[in-house]
Design a protein that fits this description.
The chain is mostly helical. The protein is built from seven helices and two strands; from the N terminus they run αββαααααα.
């Protein structure tokens, strides 16, 4: 589905979905519409770039990013109700967390928040998890592992840099 159009419901005459499938499709449609509204509902005139309500709400100091986090978490809640693998839910949560943390940085964060589009990513993750939970779980495992490795590397790098700077300071003073 193109990101510049709201989701469209397709009904095939004479076909009835199996029990439970209709509800899943309804949730998918709801999630895609919400993600579109939050991440790409409006085209910036003169460009091909789209933004949604999420980065606009994020312009409200402090409270805006919190509101965006709560609304984005609703998609994760819906995914959890349909048995999406935990590792996929964790990946979805990390997408939303990155969106909230980056968006909380004044000015630059708001621009990056408009580009990150965590809700559209999570809508696609939900689709993959409902279509093929094992494959979605495997790919999400590696992405989550990579994110955790990156965070660990930044933390270790910060500690090493701090120790090195303290060492230089002690040598300069003493």
């Amino acid at each position: 589905m193109p990101p510049n159009e709201p989701p469209v419901r397709i009904i095939v005459p004479g076909s009835a979905p199996p029990p439970g499938l209709a509800e899943r499709n309804q949730v998918r449609e709801h999630v895609h519409h919400l993600a579109w509204l939050l991440d790409s509902a409006f085209e910036i005139p003169g460009t091909r770039f789209r933004i949604g309500l999420d980065p606009l709400i994020g312009l409200i100091p402090v409270l805006g990013d919190l509101i965006g986090l709560v609304i984005s978490s609703y998609i994760i809640l819906l995914a959890s109700r349909f048995g999406v693998p935990r590792v996929v839910l964790l990946r979805m949560f990390l997408n939303v967390l990155i969106d909230a943390v980056v968006g909380s940085v004044p000015v630059v964060g708001d621009a990056l928040d408009a580009a990150w589009k965590a809700n559209l990513m999570n809508a696609r993750l939900l689709d993959r998890a409902l279509d093929d939970p094992k494959a979605a779980g495997r790919s999400s495992f590696w992405v989550v592992l990579g994110m955790l490795a990156a965070v660990l590397a930044v933390c270790v790098g910060g500690i090493v840099l701090t120790v090195w700077l303290i060492h230089l300071l002690i040598r300069a003073v003493g």
